[in-house]
Amino acid sequence: MDDALTLTQVTKRFGRTQVIDGIDLNVAPGELCVFVGPSGCGKSTLLRMIAGLEDVTAGQIAIGGRRVNELPPAQREIAMVFQSYALYPHLSVRDNMGLALRQASTPKAEVLTATDRAADMLSLTALLDRRPADLSGGQRQRVAIGRAIVRRPKLFLFDEPLSNLDAALRVATRIEIARLHRDLGATMIYVTHDQVEAMTLAHKIVVLRAGRVEQVGRPMDLYNDPDNRFVAGFIGSPA
Ligand code: ADP
Ligand code: MG
């Protein structure tokens, strides 16, 4: 079977600044892969290139074996969840969740079925007619996750989705994402600068530092056998 995601020498420069420096990576179907690293190391830029929100300066990106470098985001069969939720304020929860399908001319009944199902998975059924302004931060982030699920992407991309939540909600939402990952059998890339999130969620952790991969491995392997002091410091010591 093809890898869910293959990065080959992926590079990004903004002007003369090299932000991502020749990254190679394979993510297997169904894997939950966490990109972890300090602020400014290039995590969001890498994710945005996979999503097609940012051009690649050099290298190849393939999703499910298909080269996507030239494809716009809508054709990449991905769904992205941002720290900022990015919901439409004038639309109800139901319409926020169904929008991408409706834009793809999916039959109305099918959109409703998919929306209801995702709402059920995320305990959002009672909130479907509300607008984002009438929701808590945790509820908004569940809507953003629901919107991603409705699209049935080949690849879920999460960029620090818990950063705007308070500590208790962070743990609850993290557990929710892990459960969704199991239930959906989906491939997920999850970006965080939080070591605890990385250790508890990941099948595979990619430690990034200044635009390069420092080490890739299973959480306990990195913890027990770090390649260098940077990885040891990052994975070994809680935030
Ligand atoms: P992270 O998500 O790991 O915190 P980012 O990917 O956001 O890191 O940023 C990596 C580096 O790229 C930072 O130094 C940032 O300032 C720089 N950068 C990000 N976006 C741009 C841009 N549009 N133009 C110029 N520099 C950028
Ligand atoms: Mg970032």
UniProtKB/TrEMBL annotation:
**Similarity section:** Belongs to the ABC transporter superfamily.
Record-level Gene Ontology MF annotations: ATP binding
Which residues does the UniProt record annotate as the domain ABC transporter? Answer: 5-235
Keywords of the record: ATP-binding, Nucleotide-binding, Transport
Q: Does the keyword Secreted apply?
A: no
**Which start and end residues of the full protein are shown?**
1 to 239 of 334
Name-wise, this protein is ABC transporter ATP-binding protein
Q: Look up the signal peptide feature and give its range.
A: none
